Structures are given as structure tokens and as C-alpha cells.
Amino acid sequence: MSATLEMPTFQPADYKTDLKPVWCAGCGDFGVLTGVYRAMAELQFKPWETVVISGIGCSSRLPGYVATYGFNSVHGRALPIATGVKVARPELNVVAVGGDGDGLAIGGNHFMHACRRNLDLCYILMDNEIYGLTKGQAAPTTPSGDKTKSTYYGNPEPSVDPCELAISMGATWVARGFSGDLKGTVDLLVKGMSHKGFAFLNIMSPCVTWRGDDQFKTLKAKLRNLPEGHDPTSRSEALKFTRETDIMTVGLLYEVKQPSLVERLSAQKVTSLRGGAPPTTQDVIKSFYPAF
Amino acid sequence: MPTKDLTIAMIGSGGDGVVTMGEMLAQAAARDGLNVIKTEAYGPQIRGGETSCVVRISSEKIYAQGDAVDILAVFNWADFGRFKGEVVLHPNAAVLFEEADAAAPTPADLGLGEGHSWVPVPFLKLATESTGTKAAKNIVSLGLFAELFGLPNESIRAAVEKKFTKKKAAVLEANLKGFDAGVAFAKALPGDLGARRLLYTKGSPKLLMSGNEASAVAAIHAGCRFFGGYPITPSSEVLHFLSEWMPKVGGSVIQTEDELSALGSCVGASFAGVKSMTSTSGPGLSLMTEMLGLASMAEIPTVVLDVQRGGPSTGLPTKSEQSDIWQAVFGGHGDQLRAVVAPTDVADCFHATVDAFNIAEEYQLPVIILSDQGIGQSRSTVDEEGLVHKVVDRAIPDPALGDKYLRYQDTESGVAPMSSPGMKGLMYQTNGLEHSESGSPSAMYLTHEKMNHKRYRKLRPIRDKYERFLQFGPEKANVGILCWGSSAGPVREAVAAANARGESVSAFVPQLIYPFPKHPFLKFLAGCDKLLVLEISFAAQFYKYIRTFMTLPDDRTILFKRSGGKNLTVGEVNDEIRKALAAKLPLEVKK
Q: Which of B104, B245, B481, B578 has the most CB atoms lying inside 10 A of its own CB?
């Protein structure tokens, strides 16, 4: 008897829609999109059981280019929408995507709480350290001192490290990647999309238009891999690779096992019945008769 | 002479047990088959401050809270003072008050007449002596009330037992002693308070629920299986109730980080094929405006319950007002479509909520239920047989369509079937951007114009299919009242009283607010000589809203509007009816 070799059903190209990306030539987001196609194919996600959700921004256009169910919602709200989708239909593969302004400024509150809830979804934050779609204003990740369209004399504010925020807020899988490294991106996407719990992937995704042609080169020069023997279950070890300035460490910084929100809610559905049958509307109504 | 209808008010501070007392009274009356409407009012601090609880108990059908209090219990006169103008006494009221409170006013201060009773009661002393704790003041009062006013004694005692049955035996025993001490004190009282004794025959038990609870039950009935909510007074009871019951029916409740996320998660759940709802009040609806626009643009069914309170801003968090109508109908940027329904009482919260789901699911748009604190948080008896309402589900596309499926197909009805994740071959990518029939983003004028037409085409069928309204009184009348929401109850009672006096008065109460049931209203309008518009909004939002889509006859229209903070009373409506009947036509039109 010989083992049957089956060809995977879904190829990366199967996840492509007919819509042509609106991104500028050379945009880092192309690398992420290709990575998403490949990761989904590797995981053999059934397109009709997969939902890609975004807010607003250049990178938030991504759901339109993925042939699954998709929702390009409003600015900053990818995670609230994704939360509803995943809680209502836990069996679906849910991927949320967006940029740094979308996820950390206007959507910052949602980001913190999504981390805390440990909901089973993968959130890909394409970080170009700038507002691209609105043409070049400072974002929460724009380095302090940088001149942008909205910071004429240089950015007066310190920036935030999204990975540090995610780890401290309770995300159970946190990684940093670089869209210029397709292999590394696919590897992290596959792991993140397979994680049970909230997986946060900060992909540095250069903006050639508003951060200049050399953002690729600058980032590439700063790239470091995680040292051998890094213990991703240690929060304090993981945090050592955040807030870096002269270098940028990529890889899976942090990974722990915690019950996910879906697991907790599913368990409550069972325990709430105390072994009985689900109530009908009439049962619910009758609970309002005085109980004595 | 005994009475069939009794209104009892209890006033104290947080900790006096006023709310528990009112609840036990209401439960006991419901158990004996009486009709009950119970309302509570608090100071702005929501917890720990002055509290009033008004329970109206009647052997006949009632539609409004009692506006003239027959029996008043005051634990603390300072607290009573904080409800000035809100708790109004009948001239012949019986006032029972804490003897130890030196700050008592005189009966004349309270406008009492000759038939009143003025009864100092050592609540504190009775409680301490009989139970060992002053905390049992409310239980002592219950015994006192039961004995004096012929309230369902046995059922109140049963309510006390139920309340303390989970505590130590000694606690239960002490409270029952407190109850008996109240009874004994009442028996020893000189004078006759018997004129206020409630006359009734015991009937089968009735349901006792709040409007918010009725909405929550309706959501479960309608098939809602996702609720995303953020706490806000006076709507949090919906979140509380569903957090217990939703998991039992296989659904989920999440408490989100804010109202943007509350409605956002509902939009997500519904996109994923699961009926969803959130509940909030005015300030929350302001934040949800963003998501209403998205649900409108992406044509996603979802339901928002707005339990109105006084505004703007933090306003009067614990008290009712009808001032969110503009926000509900018009709030938001762009030309966005939603429907708005408004329940008229507790039981109608059930019907309005199921209707909201039906409209949302059938026409794929957000629907707002405009309830208010006056019905959302008041508890009333409800007949179980009345809680029946047909449920409609959204249309699902034929899987055979495959690539030909157009999520936003420009159909005659404006509605195209909606697929959801898991349905093979019917995938689509939606967005808050204007889009073509397939869902692809488009900024073309022609597409925008066409899709606006498509979306707005739903309005007329919603109006024709879901037009709901109440009408009281004769078809032809001298005065026709137009009001909405919780005003319906007092108006209904006032119209009935006026008709009984032989006065020519009727009323029209739309329960579908937007789109408005214009044709039945025009018919009603044609039947009355004068139109009297009544509302609890200083800016007259309802009156002005009506005037955005039709003209009202100025020379025969009278407007009564005032701020919220106090529910509309039967007495107020009576006064306005009297004035309107006396008004000579044509009315003077203000320039």
C-alpha cells in the first residue's frame, strides 16, 4: 500500500481577486499581500470560511484583494468588527489587517482590549510609520523628531512600539516582521494564523511615497534576527526586543498558551445550562412570574 | 370607601431599602393578579443618593404611573425635597413619615386638603426593636402598609420570605418579626385610614417585567444570538439580562470597551450571519453614529435600543426625556438610511423590538428602537398571552448563483439576498466606501446616485408593511392628540377619562417613527378640528420632525412640550385637553 500524495486544494493564486491594488509601486504592502496568499494556501484555509477585515488606510484596502469574505470597514474599527465576527461564528478563520494610524491612534482603544480579550484571530499591523492615504502625516509610530507634513518642525511626540503594547496588554502571540523578507513574513503569518488566541503581527511595511525610497534600505540595515535560545514564553525576555532604536529585531517575540475568549464563551454556553435543555422563548418569559 | 386603584410612593436615601420595598410590593401584587406599574427615580449620582419608588396597584387595567400619590412613606424629608415637583400628592393622601426626622414640613406645605392623614411612624425604632437592625425599616413599612391599606398581606409576607430565604434562618426570622411589628403598629393606630383600602379579588399571577427586560426577551425571541454592549444608565438591564440568558440559548454577549465597539461588534456579527443587537442611551448613540453609517452603507441588519434619558451630554442620566428623535432619525453624515420604532409601554417594548429585528433583517439596514427611561426602567404587569410576535429572517441567496451573485444587486425592492461566511461560492468583499452592485469600491457619481436610489427604495415598503400606530377615542373629534413613546400611557388614560365625561377627544400614537405612517395620520388629522401635539422635549423635536415631511395646519395646531426629568402625567394631559377644547378656531399663528 502506498501513501496517497494529494495536491493541496488551494493555491496562493486562488486567494486573489480581480481587483488591482491601488498601492504605489514599491509599497511594502504588496509583500504582505503576497504573504497572506501564501500563508492561507499553506494553511489550506477554505476561502468561504475565511474573513479578512480592515479599517481605513492604504493597507486597509487589503481585504478587497483577497478572495475570501471581506470587510473594509471604517477608520480604526477593524477589531470591533472582527470581534463580532469571531464571537458570533467561532469556526471561521478571522484575519484583521490595517496600518499603524488605524490600529494605534484612532483604533488604539480597541487594540488594547482585543489583546486583553485574547480573542482567536490574527491581527496584522502593516507599519510604515506614517499616514499614507491622507498623504504623509505623523502616526503614533513615527519616530520622534521626524519631519512629516503635519510635523513641520519635527515630530514633537515620542513614538509607541506596538509589540510592547501588545505584550503588556495580554496578547498571547506577538511577532515582528519585515515585508521585504517574504519568507520570514509567510512563516510568521502561518504561525500567527494558527495561534489559538490573539496573535499580533507587526510587519514593518515601508511607504516609498511618504517615508522615502530609502525606508527599505534603512529598515533592512537595522534588521536582526532573534538570538538563538530566545525564550518566547518569557514576557520580560520578549520586552527586551521592543523599543529598539538603532536595530530592529524580527521574529516571534512572545508566545504563551492562555484560554481564548472563544474557549471561555463556549464553556459558559455549556455551564449556563447546568445539564438542562436550552430554554424556549416561553421559558424565558415565564421567568418573570413572581417566584414565590 | 375602598378603592380599586392605589398609588404608593416611598422616598429615602440609598440604604433605606426603598427600591427593595417597592419591588416586593409589586411582586406581591403581580402574584395576586393585580395590575402594577412601578417606577423609580434617583438623583444624578445613580448609587447611594436620594431614591423614590412609586408603585401603582389596581384591580383594573392601567396604562400610566399614578401621578397623584395616595400613600406616601418618607424615611427622610430632605430626600423628599429633592423630588419637588416630581412626586405630587393627592389632596387626601395618607403621609407616613419617620417620627425621628425633625425636618418635617406641615400638611399645608405639601398642599394637602381636609381628607388627608398625617401619621408620624417610629420606623427606625420599630425596626431596631423588632429586628435588631435599622436596615429593616422597609420591611416594617411593608407590614404597616399591608395592614392599613388592604394590600396582599399574605403575598407580601411570601415576598419577604423569598427575599431572605437564602440568608441565615435568624435573618429571615428577624425580618418576619419586623413585618409583624409593622402590622401590629398599624392595628394600634387611632383613626380610620380605610378610605384608601384596596378592593380586589385575587386572580392568577401576572408577569412583572421592565421595558428593558421585555426588549431583551424579545431579542431572544427574534433570534438575536449576539449582543455587544457598553454599560450606560438607563439601559444596562438589557446587558445584564442577556449576559445571563444569551449563553443558555447558544448566543454570546460581550461587554465592549466603548459604544463604537459595541455597535461595531454587532455589525461584524450580523455580517457573519448572526442577528445582533446593542442597547444604549443618548450619549452612547452619539458614539454609535459612525457605525450606523457603516451599517447603512454596507446594508447590514442590526438593532440599536436607545433608552432615552435627559440630555444633552451627561444630562439627566436617571430620568426620562424624548429628545433623541433627531439624533435617531437624522444623526450622522451623508445620506444614510435607517428605520426608527418607538414602544409605547412595557409590553410594547417586546413588539417594537421584534419588529425592529424584522425590519432590519428583511430590509438590511440598522433599526433604532427609541425607548425611554420611563418605560425602560419601569416595571409593569404583562399578560403572557400578549407576548407573541412573528419573526422574519433575512433572505439568503441561491447557492447556484455562484459567480453571478451580486451582493448589492439593484433590485426592484432595493433588497438583494445576503450571503454570509461559510456559504460557498457566494463570497463578497464589502466596505463603507460607496460600491458597485458587486461590492467593489467606486467613487463614480453614477454609481453613487444609483446605489442611493437602491437603498432609499426600501423606505416605502417598510412604511407600508411595518406601519404600527395606536388610536384612542372617536374617529371624529374636537381635539386630536398626537404623541409618541411613553406619552401614550398617560394620553390613553386622559382620553378615556375625557370621553367618559362626554368630551370629544382622540389620540394618534405612531409606533413606527421613521418612516412615518403618514397616511393613517392624515386620515386621523382630517377627523379632528384641532391637533394637540404633546411631547417631552424642550426643543419640540417630534413636532419639528413631523414638519420635515409634511405641513401641519398652524391655525389649528397646539403644541405642548416641556423638558424631561419627569414623565408625562395624566393630570398634565387633562389640563392640556381642557385648554385645547376651550380654544377658539382659528388659532392665532405666531409669526
A: B481
Q: Is residue B400 part of a domain?
A: no
Is B332 found in the same domain as B295? yes
Q: Enumerate domains of chain A plus CATH numbers.
A: 12-259 (3.40.50.970)
Chain A touched by B402 (CB under 8 Å): no
- Reported as a single tens digit per residue, the pLDDT across B363-393 is 999 999 999 999 999 999 999 999 999 999 9
**pLDDT 10s digits, A136-158:** 999 999 999 999 999 999 999 99
A277 and B CB contact within 8 Å: no
Model confidence pLDDT, tens digit, residues B427-481: 999 999 999 999 999 999 999 999 999 999 999 999 999 999 999 999 999 999 9
Are residues B54 and B93 in contact, defined by beta-carbon separation less than 8 angstroms? no
Q: How many CB atoms lie within 10 A of CB A212?
A: 12
Cβ-contact B230, B204 below 8 angstroms: no
Q: What is the pLDDT of residue A1?
A: 45
The angle at the Cα of B324, spanning B320 to B329, to the nearest 5 degrees, equals: 150
Q: Do B248 and A110 touch (CB under 8 A)?
A: no
For position A79, what pLDDT does the model report? 98
Helix (H) or strand (E) holding B34: none
**Boundary residue ending a domain (B325, B360, B386):** B386
Buried b (16+ CB within 10 A) or exposed e, B77-94: eebbebbeebbbbbeebb
* B267–A272 CB contact, under 8 Å: no
Shared-domain flag, residues B214 and B176? no
Cβ <8 Å between A80 and B265: yes
One-letter amino acid at A130 equals I
Hey, is the C-beta of B207 within 8 angstroms of any chain A C-beta? yes
Give A 9-38 residues with CB within 8 A of chain B: 17, 19
B455 within some domain: no
Q: Which of B337, B353, B386 is the last residue of a domain?
A: B386
Q: Is residue B421 part of a domain?
A: no
Pairing state between β A93-99 and A69-72: unpaired
Q: CB-based contacts of A269: which residues, under 8 Å, 6+ apart?
A: B247, B248, B250, B252
Residues 425-454 of B with CB under 8 A from A: 425-433, 440-441
Residues of B in contact with A292 (CB under 8 A): 27, 31, 155, 158-159, 161-162
Cβ-Cβ contacts under 8 Å, A87 against chain B: 226, 252, 254, 265, 269
Query: How confident is the model over B439-448, as pLDDT tens digits?
Result: 999 999 999 9
Counted domains in chain B: 3
Its domain, for residue B564, covers 468-582
Alpha-carbon distance B447 to B457, whole Å? 15
B423 located within any domain: no
User: Residue B83 pLDDT > 80, yes or no?
Assistant: yes
Burial class from Cβ neighbours inside 10 Å (0-12, 13-18, 19+) for residue B320 reads: buried
Q: What's the pTM value of the predicted model, to 2 decimals?
A: 0.96
Angle of helix A162-169 relative to helix A108-117, nearest 10 degrees, comes to 40
